[in-house]
Write a structure and sequence with these properties.
The complex is a heterodimer of chains A (about 90) and B (about 400). Chain A has about 90 residues and is mostly helical. Chain A contains three helices and no strands. In chain B, the strands form three sheets. Chain B has a ten-stranded mixed sheet with strand order 5-4-6-7-1-8-14-13-9-10, sandwiched between helices. A two-stranded antiparallel ribbon of chain B has the order 2-3. Classes of the chains: A mainly alpha (about 90), B alpha/beta (about 400).
C-alpha cells in the first residue's frame, strides 16, 4: 500500500466526515461515519479528480458496483487498482 | 369559485409529436428511451435518454422565430398551438386582456446556454449569438406563447425543478377558479439533453445507464427526457357557453415543502401533498382510481413515494404507474406530459403502464400496472410531482360530467 495514496484518501474522507485524519484508519467502515448521500458523491468526485480515475458508482445500487466502498482500506485498494490499470 | 375544465391539450415528447401519438404509445407500452444523439456523447458516462425524434423546427417557424427560439421555447409553442386549436378558442380583445400563460421549466434555454459557453470556453471565440439572452431566459417560452396569441393577462414562468409544471398548472387552476382569468394556457417545457446539462446530472450518480425501471426491485436510476405539454384551463361556464368539448375537470391542487433535505425525499411531505389535493377537491381517497406517480426510478424516490401512497391511501391504494419509464424524466415539463396519462385514464379508461418492471420490491407494495396497459374505469386521477429541494405539488383531475 502506497502510504502517500492512503494518506491522501484518508484526508479527503476525513474532510467530508468532519473528522481529523487521525480518527480514521484502514479498518474504519464508511457506514460508521454518518455520511449522507451528498457526502458520498463528493467523496467519489474528489477521488476521481485527485487520482484522475473513473469510479463506477450508482447511488441507486451502492452495493452492486465492482468498486468496494465498504471500508477505508477497501477504498484505498480499489483506488490503487484503478490507478495501476491506468498506468498499464 | 369557478369550476375549471381542460378544453385543449398539446404535447411533444419522445413518444410522439402530438397528443394522439403520445396516448397511442402509452396504450401500446412503447418506450421512447434509446441511445442519445447529441454532440460529445462519447464523453458522457450515461448515453441513453428519451429524445424527441423527427422534429424539424424549420417546418414550423419562420426565420425570425428560428433565431429567437431555444428548443425549450419551440416545444412550448408547438404544444400551445395544438392545445389552442383543440380548444377552438377565438381570442378576441376582451379575452386577450384577461387570459394568461404560466409554464414550468427548470433549465430554461439550456441548449442556448450550453452553445454559448462552448463557443467562448471550448472554441475560444469572443462572440456569441446576439440573441443569446432572450433565447436562454427561463420565461422565453411563456413570453412567446403570450405574444403568439396576444394574451395580455397573468404571464410568468415557474421554476421548481421536477415539480415546475405541476406548480405552474396548480397556479393556473387557482387563477381560473378564483376568477382572475377565464382562460390560462399552462403546462411546462424542458430541453436539457445537451452535453452540459447531462454532465451536471451525471455528477449526482442517480442516472441509469440501461433503462428506467420505476418501482422494480432492480431499478437503477432515472433516465432524462425532453419535451413539453400545454393545456387550456378554462372557466367551465365560459367553456359551456361557447359549446367547447371538455376533456376533464381540474378539481384540486396542493403544494407543500419537506423542509428536510435538498435531494432526499420525505414520505411525509409527499403524503401531505396528496391528501391536500384531495381535501382541496373535497374528495375521499377511495374516489381516486389512478395515480400518475412521480416514479423516477431512483432507489430513494420510489421507496419514499410508495410509503407516502401507503400512508395516504392505506392498503387499498389505487392503480399507480410511472410513465417516466416511457418518456423519460422531462424535469420541468414532466408533470405536464404526465397529466396526459391522467387524461387518458379518465377519458379512455386506459391506464398507461410502468415499463421496465422486472421484479417486485417489498418496499413498493403497489399495483404499478407493470409493462402492459390496462383497462379501468377511473373517475378521479392524481398527478404527483416531488422536486429536488423537497417541493411537492399534486394535481387532482376528474372525468368531465
Amino acid at each position: 500500500m502506497s502510504s502517500q495514496t492512503a494518506q491522501t484518501i484518508i484526508a479527503l474522507i476525513a474532510e467530508q466526515a468532519l473528522l481529523q485524519p487521525s480518527d480514521l484508519d484502514a479498518e474504519t467502515r464508511l457506514a460508521d461515519l454518518g455520511l449522507d448521500s451528498l457526502a458520498m458523491v463528493e467523496i467519489i468526485f474528489a477521488l476521481e479528480e485527485t487520482f484522475d480515475i473513473a469510479i463506477p458508482f450508482n447511488a441507486n445500487e451502492p452495493g452492486k458496483g465492482e468498486f468496494d466502498l465498504s471500508s477505508i482500506g477497501a477504498i484505498i485498494a480499489a483506488v490503487e487498482g484503478l490507478v495501476s490499470q491506468k498506468a498499464a | 369559485m369557478k369550476r375549471v375544465v381542460i378544453t385543449g391539450a398539446g404535447t411533444i415528447n419522445a413518444l410522439g409529436l402530438n397528443v394522439p401519438d403520445t396516448l397511442a404509445a402509452f396504450a401500446a407500452g412503447q418506450c421512447g428511451i434509446g441511445p442519445l444523439d447529441i454532440p460529445d456523447v462519447d464523453r458522457l458516462s450515461v448515453r441513453i435518454g428519451a429524445q424527441v425524434k423527427g422534429w424539424q423546427a424549420t417546418d414550423h417557424f419562420d426565420l425570425r422565430g428560428l433565431s429567437l427560439y431555444d428548443r425549450m421555447t419551440q416545444f412550448a409553442l408547438w404544444s400551445a398551438r395544438q392545445a389552442v386549436e383543440q380548444s377552438g378558442l377565438q381570442f378576441d380583445t376582451a379575452l386577450q386582456d384577461r387570459a394568461g400563460v404560466v409554464l414550468g421549466t427548470a433549465g430554461g434555454g439550456l441548449n442556448t446556454t450550453d452553445d454559448s459557453y462552448r463557443a467562448v470556453y471550448a472554441e475560444g471565440k469572443n462572440r456569441v449569438h446576439p440573441l443569446t439572452v432572450p433565447r436562454l431566459m427561463a420565461n422565453a417560452g411563456v413570453s412567446h406563447v403570450s405574444m403568439t396569441y396576444g394574451l395580455r393577462g397573468p404571464c410568468f414562468t415557474v421554476s421548481t425543478a421536477c415539480a415546475s409544471s405541476n406548480h405552474a398548472m396548480g397556479l393556473a387552476f387557482q387563477m381560473v377558479r378564483a376568477g382572475t382569468a377565464p382562460v390560462m394556457l399552462t403546462g411546462g417545457s424542458e430541453a436539457m439533453l445537451c452535453f452540459g446539462g447531462l454532465k451536471a446530472w451525471e455528477g449526482l450518480r442517480v442516472m441509469s445507464s440501461d433503462a428506467c425501471r420505476p418501482f422494480s426491485a432492480n431499478r437503477s436510476g432515472m433516465v432524462q427526457g425532453e419535451g413539453a405539454a400545454v393545456f387550456v384551463f378554462e372557466d367551465r361556464d365560459h367553456a359551456l357557453a361557447r359549446g367547447a368539448k371538455i376533456l376533464a375537470e381540474v378539481v384540486g391542487f396542493s403544494m407543500c415543502s419537506d423542509a428536510h433535505d435538498v435531494v432526499m425525499p420525505a414520505p411525509e411531505g409527499a403524503m401531505r401533498a396528496m391528501r391536500g389535493a384531495l381535501a382541496d377537491a373535497g374528495l375521499s381517497p377511495a374516489q381516486v382510481g389512478y395515480i400518475n406517480a412521480h416514479g423516477t426510478g431512483t432507489a430513494a424516490n420510489d421507496r419514499s413515494e410508495a410509503a407516502a401512497i401507503g400512508a395516504a391511501f392505506g392498503p387499498d391504494a389505487p392503480l399507480v404507474s410511472s410513465t417516466k419509464s416511457a418518456h423519460g424524466h422531462i424535469i420541468g415539463g414532466t408533470g405536464a406530459v404526465e397529466l396526459l396519462a391522467c387524461l387518458m385514464a379518465l377519458r379512455d379508461g386506459i391506464i398507461a403502464p410502468t415499463l421496465g418492471f422486472q421484479k417486485p420490491d417489498p418496499d413498493c407494495p403497489l399495483d404499478v400496472v407493470p409493462n402492459v396497459a390496462r383497462r379501468a374505469q377511473v373517475e378521479v386521477a392524481l398527478s404527483n410531482a416531488f422536486a429536488f429541494g423537497g417541493l411537492n405539488a399534486v394535481l387532482a383531475i376528474a372525468r368531465a360530467d
